[in-house]
Design a protein that fits this description.
Blueprint: H1 12-21, E1 23-26, H2 32-51, E2 60-63, H3 70-73, H4 82-89, E3 93-103, H5 124-127, E4 137-143, E5 156-157, E6 181-182, E7 190-194, E8 199-200, E9 210-219, H6 239-244, H7 263-271
Antiparallel strand pairs: 1-7, 2-3, 3-9, 4-7, 4-9, 5-6, 5-8
């Protein structure tokens, strides 16, 4: 990890925004050149899935895409993003989940049906004994297509709802919750969001395909949410990337980590010691 990445460290204003609203938007996180490379690899995978029988008119949810190309691997510890992730969650973290989503034009008329609002992490939200629910993890969504206008399959959120265990939904399943907004961003934008933030996907009523990469970071004692077949990448990765890809000395190292388990901690003690004050 190059110390130059600290120029992208989480600012106090960004921390305040994330803590209060549950999300943070970082424009131009990816250069146009990087968006082009990632889009080409995204399209290669998407087109392959369609050839294999996926219905081109329905959304594609494809997890465990990280090993598919070096451009995806390089985002695991991306210098503009990871410093903000550890600024929010701390050093005992790794990439526990990743998926790409392609949302093609629905071909349907626009309607006002209530979207599928939810918090991430499934059973965690029913079995954790705390209020509000614990943060535990966050996701970073990299947008490769232009969703700077509504009705393009936008990701919808209710700002500030991450501290609410429930969300009031219309009983007749018409309309969206109070305060709900679409996230409208340009290609190359990264959106960080707390796993507790109430959010929903929406139909794509446009004529373009929405393309997004999601990287989920959580504490190392959280189990992976998909297969995450990345172990073969450990040997060729530097220590911090290995940590992000789930490497550990042994199972106990997920709960009581040594320096060998969490090289990010050692690196931060040297380069960002204020985190330990």
């Amino acid at each position: 990890m190059n110390p130059s990445c600290l120029q992208y460290a989480l600012t106090e204003e960004e921390r305040k925004t994330f803590n209060e609203t549950g999300y943070l938007i970082l424009e131009n996180a990816l250069s146009p050149e990087r968006v082009e490379i990632l889009t080409a690899e995204f399209d290669r995978i998407y087109e392959g899935k369609i050839r294999d029988g996926h219905d081109s008119k329905t959304a594609l949810f494809y997890p465990n895409f990280i090993p598919d190309h070096q451009s995806f691997i390089d985002l695991v510890d991306y210098e503009k993003i990871l410093p903000k992730v550890w600024g929010i969650l701390g050093w005992n973290i790794y990439l526990y989940h990743a998926h790409m989503i392609a949302t093609p034009p629905s071909g349907q008329e626009k309607n006002d049906k209530t979207f599928g609002w939810h918090q991430d992490s499934g059973r965690v939200n029913m079995e954790m004994e705390s209020h509000p629910r614990p943060r535990l993890s966050l996701k970073v969504a990299y947008f490769l297509s232009d969703i700077s206008e509504p009705d393009r399959g936008n990701f919808w959120i209710v700002p500030g709802s991450h501290l609410n265990d429930n969300l009031e939904i219309s009983k007749n399943r018409e309309g969206q919750p109070e305060g709900a907004i679409p996230v409208c961003v340009k290609p190359g934008t990264a959106v960080f969001f707390d796993r507790r933030l109430w959010h929903a996907g929406s139909p794509n009523w446009s004529d373009i395909t929405r393309k997004v990469l999601f990287y989920g970071y959580g504490y190392r004692w959280i189990r992976t949410k998909d297969d995450m077949t990345v172990q073969h990448l450990w040997e060729s990765s530097d220590p911090i990337r290995r940590q992000m890809l789930g490497a550990s000395v042994n199972c106990n190292g997920h709960y009581s980590p040594t320096d060998a388990d969490v090289p990010l901690r050692t690196w931060l003690k040297e380069h960002q010691p204020e985190m330990f004050e």
